[in-house]
From TrEMBL:
Keywords, sorted A to Z: Aminotransferase, Pyridoxal phosphate, Transferase
Family note: Belongs to the class-I pyridoxal-phosphate-dependent aminotransferase family.
Enzymatic reactions: L-aspartate + 2-oxoglutarate = oxaloacetate + L-glutamate
Superkingdom to which the source organism belongs: Bacteria
Keyword Transferase in record: yes
UniProt keyword Transport present: no
Protein name: Aminotransferase
All copies of domain Aminotransferase class I/classII large, residue ranges: 32-392
Cofactor: pyridoxal 5'-phosphate
CDD domains: AAT_like (cd00609)
């Protein structure tokens, strides 16, 4: 009998973390590495938010808080949803967790029984299917290719729903593609969901504020109020306010679900970090200048990267609507051989050869459920991105 639980065999370590770790190890060995694999803003947390965390320590806010968030933070979250999304929630409908990932995990673990299905559009964030598997559910992957702009169509959604379907996971703008759903596109999906009253929507809005070219962000419960009692709207402070290490995510949804998630959290992590909660409250209620400033920087970087990649032979890079990722196709490079003699049989071989031969770390598309692609995070400096584009172009030019 194995000491380790069988459930661990259902999942795999995060490929994004694995690639970032490998790049770090190579850098430690003296290699010149440019890592474009991690999805983390390269800016410091804004000063007024850092000051709020320090003030919380000095004020003695270092003890346990309510399991799923302080009353004042929950109220700030309710105000945020009302102000920015036109959604009316009471604090009893809000859960605060240790990052957005815990909100998602709690929701799935609290609701999925054996063989319950979760519809997940691909490309997807790497953790979605593994969370479903750990909870005993079945990920139903729907490929959304480059021809569809990496977006789920209403026809594909309707076809994927079965009597066992419990959740649809939507992420707009998306990790890894940066694709966002317009109001009309979201309306088409919510129209399908109205015909399936037993299916809930888990809306991952973590990149809400990182949208470009005037793109209008919308979330399902905002577009179709009739679905509000079947939507868990998840967000957090990590991407919008450069607070990845503070580990605060939150979700709002039906009170029965929120209570179930709190029950689960009470027996796992208990409350999120008290100091981080006070900092997150300041992020949501304080000056918002940083959000627009960082958006402008990311849009400039997006344009730099898209232009650089589309200048590379064999790469086709669509223009994303948001987030800080691009998801280019390398279909034209499959079957070729790199200058160092590595055959590019798939996107994983491409990513490994690119790292070995140029020192540029990216994440292969199979990790996100859709090949042949790779993901670049452009959450790093313009200088690093410019050098990385030059290296990738030389690599592609050497393939034959």
């Amino acid at each position: 009998m194995s000491f380790l639980a069988d459930r661990l065999a259902r999942i795999k370590p995060s490929p994004t973390i694995a690639m970032t770790t490998r790049a770090s190890e190579m850098r430690a060995q003296g290699h010149d590495i440019i890592s474009l694999s991690a999805g983390e803003p390269d800016f410091d947390t804004p000063e007024h938010i850092r000051d709020a965390g320090k003030a919380a320590i000095d004020a003695g806010h270092t003890r346990y808080t309510p399991v799923d968030g302080t009353p004042s933070l929950k109220r700030a979250i309710c105000d945020k949803f009302a102000r920015e999304n036109g959604l009316d929630y009471a604090p009893s409908q809000v859960s605060v967790g240790t990052g957005g990932k815990q909100i998602l995990f709690n929701a799935l673990l609290a609701t999925l029984d054996h063989c319950d299905e979760v519809v997940i559009p691909a490309p997807y964030w790497v953790s979605y299917p593994d969370m479903v598997l750990l909870a005993g559910g079945v990920p139903v992957i729907v490929e959304c290719g480059i021809a569809d702009g990496f977006r789920l169509t209403p026809q594909a959604l309707d076809a994927a729903i079965t009597p066992r379907t419990k959740w649809l996971i939507l992420n707009s703008p998306s990790n890894p593609s940066g694709a966002g759903y317009s109001r009309d596109e979201m309306r088409a999906l919510t129209d399908v969901m109205l015909r399936h009253p037993d299916v809930y929507i888990l809306s991952d809005d973590i990149y809400e504020h990182l949208v470009f070219d005037g793109f209008e962000f919308v979330t399902p419960a905002q577009v179709e109020p009739q679905l509000k009692d079947r939507v868990l709207t998840m967000n957090g402070v990590s991407k919008a306010y450069a607070m990845t290490g503070w580990r605060i995510g939150y979700g709002a949804g039906p009170e029965s679900l929120i209570r179930a998630m709190a029950k689960l959290q009470s027996q796992s992590t208990s409350n999120p970090c008290s100091i981080s909660q006070y900092a997150a409250e300041t992020a949501l209620t304080g000056p918002q200048d940083y959000v627009a400033e960082s958006r402008d920087v990311f849009q400039r970087r997006r344009d730099l990267v898209v232009a650089g990649l589309n200048a590379c032979p064999g790469i086709d890079c669509p223009v994303p609507q948001g987030a800080f990722y691009v998801y280019p196709s390398i279909a034209a490079l499959i079957g070729k051989t790199s200058a160092a003699g590595t055959r590019i049989d798939d996107d994983e071989a491409f990513a490994n050869a690119l790292l070995d031969e140029t020192g540029v770390a990216v994440v292969f598309g199979a990790a996100f459920g859709l090949s042949p692609h790779f993901r670049i995070s452009y959450a790093t400096s313009d200088a690093q991105l410019t050098e990385a584009m030059a290296r990738i172009r030389r690599f592609c030019e050497g393939c034959n």
